[in-house]
Model the fold of this input.
Amino acid sequence: MKIVIEKVIPDDAEELTKVATAAKKHWGYPDEWIDLWQEDLTITPEKIHSRDYYAGRIGQAFIFVYSISPISGTTYELADCWMAPEYIGQGHGRTLFAHLITTLKSRGCTKLPVLMLQVAGGRWQVAGCKWQVASGRLQVASFINRFRRLRRFYGGW
Done:
């Protein structure tokens, strides 16, 4: 079946929150951490109105979701980038990245900083991103400051 990628509407918020939460749980984080992160994992109608959200579906099932927003000039920020666990390893990440890059290029984006936990770095390197280590003191999301090291990736296109 074909993946259809569309802009997200506020009515999708609850289902997309389920995708985000399931994706985080998939990597084996303890339930206590998931509970701490739940506010950040929750995609609300307000968040959908404040950023550009896109989601991939097969039929009625959400495969992935991501959001972008401009932060200055030709630099955009990526957030809420999640893949439903049952679709991991099937090549859908390439579809997500292809859509993301096409969307960013159409907006004149030249740089995409992405802050993440160090353990996620390999997936981004596979996508062709370059990285540098940033300080764990950087306050990007409420849960990030709990970790010593982050990686900041810059998309190169």
